[in-house]
Specification:
Largest sheet: 7 strands, antiparallel
Helix content: 25-40%
CATH superfamily of one domain: START domain
Strand content: 35-45%
Strand order of the largest sheet: 1-7-6-5-4-3-2
CATH architecture of one domain: 2-Layer Sandwich
Shape: globular
Number of helices: 3
CATH class of one domain: Alpha Beta
CATH topology of one domain: Alpha-D-Glucose-1,6-Bisphosphate, Chain A, domain 4
Order of helices and strands: EHHEEEEEEH
Distance between the termini: 45 Å
Radius of gyration: 15 Å
Length: 144
């Protein structure tokens, strides 16, 4: 079973400023509750070390991620793979009169029982975390 989730949020900021947050792989990863740490690789990939609270996974999982598509400041897509799951994240930004509509889409394909169920149950909270981190980033930009 594959889980697909989407959230659209209107952000009262220019698209370029929202892009500065969402196009940064570490800024995207840091707010996600199951990400324990994040590392940059020399080859341009990034590794998310996640801890999933599901029965068959009793260790931290390394998810190797890389961007598949990037069209600044409108679109970025990344793909993450591990022995436990494959995730595709897409972020689309459209600006209209100083308001940026940010569409976040995630597709999770679990390779271990319980992965999809966890993400289906958890994604609203993870979207909340991402949105909160974006707001904090925007507030820090106002004071810069």
């Amino acid at each position: 079973m594959v889980v697909r989730v989407e959230r659209v949020v209107d952000v009262p900021a220019p698209r370029e400023t929202v892009w500065d947050f969402i196009a940064d792989p570490e800024r995207r990863a840091r707010p996600i509750s199951v990400v324990e740490r994040f590392e940059h690789q020399d080859d341009g990939q990034h590794v998310w070390h996640v801890s999933l609270p599901i029965p068959l996974v009793d260790r931290t999982i390394a998810i190797e991620t890389e961007e598949n598509a990037r069209d600044p400041p409108s679109y970025v897509e990344f793909v993450g793979t591990s022995k436990v799951l494959r995730v595709v994240g897409e972020h689309t930004l459209v600006e209209n009169d100083g308001i940026t509509t940010l569409t976040n889409r995630f597709t999770v394909d679990g390779k271990v029982p319980g992965v999809e169920r966890f993400f289906k149950r958890q994604m609203d909270a993870e979207f909340d975390n991402l949105e909160r981190a974006l707001k904090e980033f925007l507030a820090s930009q106002d004071g810069a």
